[in-house]
Amino acid sequence: MKYPKLLEPLDLGFTQLKNRVLMGSMHTGLEEEKGGFEKMAEFYAARARGGVALMVTGGISPNFRGRLAPHSSQLSSRRHVKKHKIVTDAVHQAGGKIALQILHAGRYAYHPLSVSASKIKAPISPFTPKEMSERMIKKTIKHYARCARLAKEAGYDGVEIMGSEGYLINQFIVTRTNKRTDRWGGSYENRIRFPLEIIKAVKDAVGDDFITIYRLSMIDLVKGGSNWQEVVQLAKEVEKAGVTIINTGIGWHEARVPTITTSVPRRAFTWVTKKLREEVKVPLITSNRINMPEVAEQVLADDCADMVSMARPLLADPDFVVKAENDQRDLINTCIACNQACLDHVFKQKRATCLVNPKACYETELVPQPLNFKKKIAVIGSGPAGLAFSTEAAKRGHEVHLFDKANRIGGQLNIANQIPGKEEFYETLRYFKHLLEETGVNLHLETEATVESLTGDNAKIKFDEVIIAAGVTPRTPAIPGIEHEKVLSYIDVLLHKKPVGEKVAVIGAGGIGFDVSEYLVHEGESATLNLDEWLKEWGIDRMYQEEGGLLDEAEFTPPARQVTMLQRKETKMGKGLGKTTGWIHRTSLRHKKVQMVTGVDYKEINDEGLVIEHKSSGKTETLAVDNIVICAGQVPNRTLAEQLEAKGQKVHLIGGADVAAELDAKRAIKQGTELALSI
């Protein structure tokens, strides 16, 4: 067996888990949709069939005030039980186990009825919470117990009490948010009374033959957070209270430290769980950026924990565990930790899905239909749209021929993976490379498809349909001097590796402008591949001597170049970046002293550099730079499509060839998949 630790059962005494994989809690948005519980049932059942030992639902509130938003889910009466039973029945029929996460948002609630330990507004919510009275605290503890009892009645195998990430329980534990002077505040013993009373009430309600997980914030990553001695003290008390498992929580949502995005090194926080392992005997789960079986196996082999928690990796591939069991590691669709379709969607009140797997949370809707007629299909371009379409169409039984004039697949994914912090795109390319072989796609590299080769009299195959996924061409803005030798496109820099001077102006501040700037200020190994370096850059104290696990000051590697980013718009730079990741990109570039200049017109490029005019003042300035890198958008490659249509050939446009909007792999893969399922 290739992954013996990962696939080893875990005996909990009254029950056994078939392996060491927990699907961590993740809100999907299905919880609030019409017919959402039926969709959730298939979502979780698919992961159960895929071999996951135990799943944890998205956070469900024990009462109205604890809801994340006004219409978010709660489990507080028997009328809710029937809906939840749809989910638990489906999971059990698929051979899995599932626990319900009980989550009270506290001051993170996005509604005016929020409550907390103290009346202190969260920086990520517009509402100031009401301070909970003694009566309200006692009532809330009872609500946790009621929720757990109803979860057991609904067929769940356990509950997870959410005590981390800055939600209500966490708000009681730390001085940052608890300024009380009664028996629920002040000393640490008083501040941890709330979680311990909740655990006791839950255990009384459900008994000992029911999995009770406590999600403990092992490193808060905020000032005023717990210190290590306090974390250990709470863990020991939680163990004494009789929980089955302690799960690892990392960071508060308001922390200015990234914890799960793609630039975070793999298994970046497992050292925290390992540190606690020396202090308690109860089984521990570790989490965050564990996305491949060999990573999980090594975490367990290093004795960091008894189980690993993966949430987004099981969005990306529901069959992760089965593929690991069957030694099909190369066919695992790896989570790239981009957040674009999961967390970004949820924070916009949209249904979660996955950039690399658009079927996630759409298991009942994106279903392949039986083939009535096997078609011969030509696909032009092996970027994300072409790859997604080709493999999905071939799975359905079509004869698919994929053409690309390049000598390798991937299109602009081969650009994305050059950016420090985006190395996970290599895994996407590895996955598609093996999937092309597995599904029998006929791959024609270094082959330029033409009208003649596809439809001419000498064409080797008569294609029923042609899919144009030929991507984009960088747009060249009309700036006087744009032909100057100082000017480079982002393709020149990232793909062709043309030399770039020490002082650089980057025109365009969309996703590509940020990526190019990130690339230019780095030299040598990416911090994403060097955990110690990354921890220093984000000010994380691996010795854990300070509260919240933060250093007084971060240590930054000096930038490789002096970079100035520019945009015409006067709005905040990076406004169009991901909702949960944009701040990270901006902060990372500020760490590297990148100048961000908004509201400019580009007047001229000459031997001196780039001449700009500031719109607000009308002043002209010459930026004395060695190079100007153009990241000013793209235009779709549609020429072949237009020529084919003129010949009467049936053509479909997907990906950048359809809409040239940045490098939108999420839309490209979704569009390719949906077309393949319907064609």
From TrEMBL:
Domain FAD/NAD(P)-binding: start-end pairs: 376-647
Any one GO molecular-function label of the UniProt entry: 2,4-dienoyl-CoA reductase (NADPH) activity
Keyword Oxidoreductase found: yes
GO-annotated biological processes: fatty acid beta-oxidation, unsaturated, even number, reductase/isomerase pathway
Domain NADH:flavin oxidoreductase/NADH oxidase N-terminal intervals: 5-327
Pfam families: Oxidored_FMN, Pyr_redox_2
Keywords: Flavoprotein, FMN, Iron, Iron-sulfur, Metal-binding, Oxidoreductase
EC number per UniProt: 1.3.1.34
Family: In the N-terminal section; belongs to the NADH:flavin oxidoreductase/NADH oxidase family.
Protein name: NADPH-dependent 2,4-dienoyl-CoA reductase
Organism: Kangiella spongicola
Source lineage: Bacteria, Pseudomonadati, Pseudomonadota, Gammaproteobacteria, Kangiellales
Gene that encodes it: fadH
